[in-house]
Design brief:
Helices cover about 30% and strands about 15% of the residues. The protein is built from 14 helices and 14 strands.
Length: about 400
């Protein structure tokens, strides 16, 4: 096909592209077609996908409790203002700030707003899926506090009391309350979220709606659990994407069932077969009417039952066996003693050089040509030193 014919064909194909407006030239169409052809097939609607998501509802403040407990780092919480946005710390102001430990739920809003608040992290060794709150306590550094009082209305539990000189804030519209200006935003990466529900469990305000990819139950097989050694093995701990395993009072591995997504990874990883995962449902997008729709239904059914349909290979054509004569044994090469002696004599000066750690390091890290040049240079220097030593001895 000539170039003119190709351009004419592309011009005719304009009518086949729907919902495109203001196309200026053929290049626009080429770009659109290229985008469609290079799109990830997993994003196309004709391919069903597992549904696993966490969606914040109208109760969300937001706070920051859910962000650190997400096992896949799918949650990001940001705020539009900090204390620094309202001017530097005022000096010479006396006051007092108190935190009601009974009311404070360590939500972290105050800590994100002002540097005077410090949330003390529990640390990885202390964290337990049965107690998801990631912080031990909230501290106040009064050297960084000017008792402005802006934090008081930001606390959803009214756990902060400040005595001092309140700071009045103003913006372009005049005086406003801090709670009307301070706003947060929570973003959840759908590609990372596995629907474990840890964010919903740690949230004190029931502000997260969860959809798990699978429905089912996880059980421990008691007769095999006697051989479970979670301190030495930890296979279930290591493979679990939801990080829902812990060591119970008996010293055995146990899951927090509400956080389990029933993926079955732990069941396959357990070396003593002490875990059983049964799936009763699979949450997925709609299966569209395509030529391979039945195969998708069978695959999804296999996820629940654990039984896969074995393909019928009875009609497969088996190639004939080709008889090949055995190969003769390899012949031992003839070694010329004089030539071998010459090679040994040539390598003899290199042997002590190759035993040196620095030379070994050059061989392992340098490119072949550069390593060869450096080693030859060292060999010449060694020979020169030996020659000088012999001459000095005479």
């Amino acid at each position: 096909m000539t170039q003119d014919a190709k351009e004419n064909q592309e011009t005719k194909n304009i009518k086949d592209i729907k919902d495109i407006k203001d196309i200026k030239d053929i290049k626009d169409i080429k770009d659109i077609k290229k985008t469609e052809s290079t799109k990830d097939f997993g994003e196309l609607p004709q391919y069903p996908k597992l549904v696993a998501e966490a969606v914040p509802n109208e109760k969300c403040l937001p706070c920051i409790l859910c962000e650190p407990v997400c096992p896949t780092k799918a949650i990001k919480v940001t705020f539009n203002k900090t204390r620094e946005d309202f001017g530097p710390l005022r000096t010479g102001i006396k006051g007092r700030i108190d935190i009601d430990r009974e009311k404070c739920n360590l939500c972290g809003r105050c800590a994100r707003f002002c540097k005077a608040f410090l949330l003390v992290d529990k640390g990885e060794k202390v964290k337990n899926p049965r107690d998801l709150v990631p912080y031990e306590q909230l501290l106040v550094d009064e050297e960084l506090c000017d008792y402005c009082g802006l934090c008081v209305p930001l606390c959803p539990e009214e756990a902060i009391k400040v005595e001092g000189e309140p700071l009045k804030i103003e913006d372009a519209e005049g005086s406003k309350k801090i709670e009307e200006i301070f706003e947060g935003k929570i973003e959840i990466d759908k590609d990372l979220c596995i629907g474990c529900g840890r964010c919903a469990q740690v949230c004190p305000y029931e502000a997260m709606d969860i959809k798990k990819p699978f429905e089912g139950e996880i059980n421990l097989i008691e007769k095999n659990l006697a051989r479970c050694d979670p301190l030495g093995c930890q296979a279930c701990f290591n493979v679990c994407p939801a990080k829902c395993w812990y060591v119970d009072e008996r010293g055995k591995a146990a899951p927090v069932k509400d956080q389990c997504i029933y993926c079955g990874a732990c069941e396959r990883a357990c070396p003593v077969s002490a875990i059983e995962v049964q799936r009763s449902g699979v949450r997925h997008t709609d299966i569209q009417e395509t030529p391979w729709a039945e195969e998708w239904k069978e695959a999804i059914s296999a996820i629940k039952s654990g039984e896969r349909k074995i393909p019928d290979v009875s009609g497969a054509v088996v190639p004939p066996i080709i008889e090949r004569p055995p190969l003769p044994p390899p012949e031992k090469p003839v070694v010329d003693p004089e030539l071998l002696k010459l090679v040994d004599d040539a390598l003899k000066p290199l042997v002590p050089l190759l035993r040196k750690p620095k030379v070994r390091q050059i061989l392992e890290r340098e490119p072949a040509e550069q390593a060869s040049e450096k080693i030859v240079d060292r060999l010449h220097k060694d020979e020169a030193r030996k020659a000088a030593a012999v001459a000095g001895g005479k």
